[in-house]
Amino acid sequence: MFNYVGDISELSHNIINKYLKNKNVAIDGTLGNGYDTDFLSLNFNKVYSFDVQEKACIRYSDKNKDNVTVICDSHHKFNNYITENVDCIMYNLGFLPGTSKEITTKHTTSLESIKTGLEILNPGGIMTICIYIGHDEGKKEQSCILNFLEKISKKEYGVMIHQFLNRSKTAPMLVVIEKNS
Ligand SMILES: C[S@@+](CC[C@H](N)C(=O)[O-])C[C@H]1O[C@@H](n2cnc3c(N)ncnc32)[C@H](O)[C@@H]1O
């Protein structure tokens, strides 16, 4: 049993809770079963939550959470739906365990979404990205996202990765980006 070196989704929640000062508006870029959206809904005034799977969107909408807007569209279209800046953006990339692996996030749209997300992130805001590299598309996402992030301005953004060293080479990794305040 590990408290810190365990589940990267839980770690992302803990980091957001501890280090993010303003918790007004948040985006969940990958709604899925809604665990991250539940967390954001508890801690933020307003949450936008995206997924391309209608089933996931309907299931979450049925919870009727007052502060959550579910958007059944791809996360690379943030600007079509959101006209304000946000304090936090979370991604849990890949596919939903137990469902079709075909409906997975794709490196091109994931990267486009991350780029747009960084633009609408408030100073002091935090973006977290869980990347699952045990499948081909996940490996592409890892490589193109890390390639992009290692080149972004270090004055404007701090970027850290959390990666297991003594587990499988395909264990998931967590990327945390903080926008300079
Ligand atoms: C690993 S799951 C997310 C898990 C989720 N955060 C949770 O708490 O259960 C990835 C989700 O991303 C969704 N997805 C795939 N492509 C997407 C896209 N372009 N835009 C938004 N969501 C997408 C999938 O349908 C899937 O539900």
From TrEMBL:
<keyword id="KW-0489">Methyltransferase</keyword>
<dbReference type="GO" id="GO:0008168">
    <property type="term" value="F:methyltransferase activity"/>
</dbReference>
<dbReference type="GO" id="GO:0032259">
    <property type="term" value="P:methylation"/>
</dbReference>
<dbReference type="InterPro" id="IPR010719">
    <property type="entry name" value="MnmM_MeTrfase"/>
</dbReference>
<dbReference type="Pfam" id="PF06962">
    <property type="entry name" value="rRNA_methylase"/>
</dbReference>
<protein>
    <submittedName>
        <fullName>Class I SAM-dependent methyltransferase</fullName>
    </submittedName>
</protein>
<keyword id="KW-0808">Transferase</keyword>
<dbReference type="InterPro" id="IPR029063">
    <property type="entry name" value="SAM-dependent_MTases_sf"/>
</dbReference>
